[in-house]
Design goal:
3 helices; 754 residues; extended; 59% strand; mainly beta
Length: 754
């Protein structure tokens, strides 16, 4: 009996000692496998696990120390030793938050610009009365030269006119450097100062160093709203802004946050739909408001300008006067955006500060204050701006007032700052197809009467493309008014419109038939007839080609006939190629298609065909943005290996890039192999070329397809009767088709058994 009791005691002590050893168990939370294995201990009926392991599994706990769990804790733990699992049951609120960032990715792979140049031109000629051309005719031309390489570009612009008012002037000359990864621009030469919303920019010659977010167009610089929720079980989440689904994904059980909801600037709403694994669905619509004048938390921008103020721009080529310095700094915080601005010149000192912030989820308010000192005179300025949206109504208001003799850089050129200026208005969406807007604009200069202008407009879409519009304004400063009624109706490829206007002292009416030109190329025209106040008629036509855009017009009014002609285009030198093209605009790309007459597509729209050299120049690309350029593989001959049919191109501003989409051209043909004694190798026999080329398979009637063979080559054929040797000689190339060559006789090296 004593011996039996001793055995039981020894067994219990052994089991207890064995259980005191820690276990490695897989953690499950609320029936979900976390796929995390953790060390679990047992002590006095409690299970111990490191807080760091619980945090890695998704619990909202500190990562230090050990947590001991029993039946009385808020986290229920149960061991499944046979299954090697630790089963945890807890409220979803105890889980850590899952954060999903909906901010779009930033395009960073900007292509380096090739070395090249572009010259854009615009020419015009007018004759107001062809019966007296000497006294009523004029002509003019404007030129824009750009030299570019890598991230640098040199630009020079100017114009000249002859006839009624003959003159010419240089406009801007500058050397610019862009750094998209910063993003930053540096300009040496002519530029425009970067200033806050209330301030006035001036032209100058000198140096500018500034943040340029346009070099990262996919980057969202203003704060985007958040949405918080709790999922009891793993769920799917969909986010809709209007009718567009902007996000779809999954979240684990527990709290979750959707950061940076992708909404447009201004007011709006988003609907968040949550569906769990049981099919239960909940949705919530939230009001949103954001504004591009705000910066998201932690983001800053600056603009530093120094040089000499420019006067008589467009009249004088080089009239530089007062030296100056201007600086602006902006910084985004969690709830607001702060900014500082200063202007310094001879006898001028100006400093200002301001702040902008959202008002709840429906509006924005910003305010600025500035003080100036100029030639012993002091002045001050205060401004405020408000914008909001509530349902279908949008409101805005802007006011700035000065005291004393407030002076800024623009005032040094004689353009005095208004003593008071204000603007307010509202717009309303009336149902699905109507809109109404009202505004009031006013300004008062020092020692001058105030100007006040009220405007109103109403528009309505009536279905089938029929559009109705009504606009009007009232100028209280000179007691005048005007209004216009407008109706338009699309007809196949044209638009018919009619308008009637009335105002102080005059009325007019006009009927127009417009067949617009395709911006990718083609012909369009417009004819109109009306009274303003006498009878008049006009006809104009536009022709867009790969080499430019041309339009001309003829008008008859008051017994006189007038003619007008305009033309625009450009010349681009890129990679030692010269192209006559449309106006280069933002950026250009030389597409190397590798064959003539290949269709070139941009954003799935055909825009050009390659020339005889297999090249095509595309203009009007969006700088620093993703442009999808593609070729049609069906336009290549059958021996072309079209490995890539499209590329995403991100060009710098004002520059050109080279896009190589040329396929590898192979010498493909079908060879006929025969035995020297007659007959063909059996179907499926292997033809071995020189290593490391893989063997080729012999088809029916001795046919062997060679994908690419430029010169004669020896090969061996393995057949049931043994092995033979054959020499393959490629036939001449034939564009667009695969030719047959042979027969080539295969002979046994030892005998003619074959």
């Amino acid at each position: 009996m004593r011996r039996g009791a001793s055995l039981v005691l020894i067994f219990l002590l052994t089991a207890t000692a064995a259980r005191a050893q820690p276990l490695l168990l897989e953690i499950w939370i609320n029936g979900r496998d976390t796929q995390l294995v953790a060390r679990v201990e047992e002590k006095n009926g409690k299970l111990g696990i490191a807080n760091a392991d619980l945090a890695d599994a998704g619990l909202a706990v500190a990562r230090t120390g050990t947590r001991w769990l029993d039946e009385n804790s808020d986290i229920h733990a149960e061991e499944d030793v046979p299954g090697q699992r630790l089963l945890l049951t807890l409220a979803p609120s105890r889980l850590s938050q899952t954060t999903v960032d909906l901010r779009p990715s930033i395009v960073e792979d900007v292509m380096p610009a090739a070395r090249g140049a572009s010259l854009g031109y615009t020419v015009s000629a007018t004759a107001n009365d062809i019966a007296h051309p000497r006294n009523t005719s004029s002509a003019g031309a404007a030129l824009a030269l750009t030299l570019f390489q890598d991230n640098a570009r040199f630009t020079a612009t100017g114009f000249a006119t002859a006839g009624l008012s003959a003159r010419s002037a240089r406009l801007d000359t500058a050397l610019e450097f862009d750094t998209p990864s910063a993003p930053r621009r540096v300009i040496f030469g002519d530029a425009i100062t970067g200033v806050p919303q209330w301030a006035r920019s001036v032209r100058f010659g000198g140096v500018e160093i500034a943040t340029d977010f346009s070099q990262q167009p996919d980057r969202v610089t203003f704060p985007l709203p958040q949405f918080f929720g709790v999922a009891a079980v793993p769920s799917t989440v969909d986010v809709f802004v209007g009718a567009n689904r902007v996000f779809g994904g999954t979240v684990n059980d527990g709290p979750f946050a959707l950061d940076n909801l992708p909404v447009m600037t201004g007011g709006g709403s988003a609907t968040v739909v949550v569906r769990d694994v049981l099919g239960r669905q909940t949705s919530q619509t939230i009001s949103l408001y954001t504004d591009p004048s705000l910066l998201r938390d932690g983001l800053s921008s600056y603009a530093l300008d120094a040089g000499f103020l420019r006067r008589d721009y467009g009249l004088s080529s080089a009239d530089y006067a007062t030296p100056f310095f201007s600086g602006t700094w902006r910084r985004g915080f969690s709830d607001a955006t702060a900014q500082l601005h200063g202007e310094f010149a001879q006898a001028l000192l100006l400093a200002s500060g301001g702040v902008a912030f959202n008002i709840g989820s429906f509006g924005l308010f910003s305010t600025d204050a500035a003080a100036s000192h100029h030639d012993g005179h002091r002045g001050a300025m205060a401004s405020a701006r408000f914008a909001a949206r509530a349902g279908a109504l949008s409101f805005f208001g802007d006011i700035a007032a000065t005291a004393g003799r407030f002076t800024d850089l623009a005032s040094l050129s004689g353009d005095l700052f208004p003593e008071l200026q204000y603007e307010t208005g509202l717009s309303a969406a009336l149902g699905r197809d109507g809109a109404l807007s009202l505004s009031w604009i006013g300004r008062r200069m020092r020692n001058a009467p105030a100007d006040n202008l009220a405007t109103a407009s109403y528009s309505l879409s009536l279905g089938s493309g029929l559009f109705f519009g009504l606009t009007g304004f009232r100028d209280f400063s000179n007691d005048s008014w005007a209004g216009q009624l407008f109706v338009s109706l699309p007809l196949d490829d044209a638009i018919v419109s009619a308008s009637a206007s009335a105002g102080t002292g005059e009325t007019s009416a006009q009927l127009t038939y417009d067949s617009p030109v395709d911006p990718d190329g083609g012909f369009g025209y417009r004819v109109l007839a009306g009274t303003r106040p006498s009878q008049r008629a006009e006809a104009d036509a536009t022709w867009i080609t790969d080499h430019g855009e041309w339009d001309g017009a003829a008008a008859i009014a008051n017994g006189q006939t007038a003619l007008r002609f305009n033309g625009s285009g450009g010349v681009v030198v890129l990679d030692d190629h010269l192209f006559a093209t449309r106006a280069p605009d933002d950026a250009v790309a030389l597409v190397e298609a590798g064959a003539p007459d290949v269709g070139i597509y941009r954003e799935n729209r055909i825009v050009a065909h390659s020339d005889a050299n297999g090249d095509a120049l595309l203009t009007g690309l969006n700088a620093y943005a993703a442009n999808r350029i593609a070729v049609d593989p069906r336009d290549y001959p059958m021996d072309a290996d079209v490995a890539a049919t499209s590329r995403i191109v991100v060009p710098p501003r004002g520059a050109g890039v080279i896009v190589n989409l040329a396929p590898a051209m192979h010498h493909s043909f079908v060879a006929i192999v025969r035995f020297a004694g007659g007959g063909f190798p059996p179907l499926g026999a292997l033809l071995h070329m020189r290593a490391p080329s893989p063997p080729l398979i012999v088809g029916r009637d001795g046919e062997v397809f060679f994908g690419d063979l430029d010169g004669p080559a020896d090969a061996t054929v393995d057949a049931s009767g043994g092995r033979c040797r054959v020499r393959i000689v490629p036939p001449p190339r034939a564009a667009g088709r695969i030719v047959r060559a042979g027969p080539f006789f295969c002979r046994n090296e030892a005998s003619d058994a074959f």
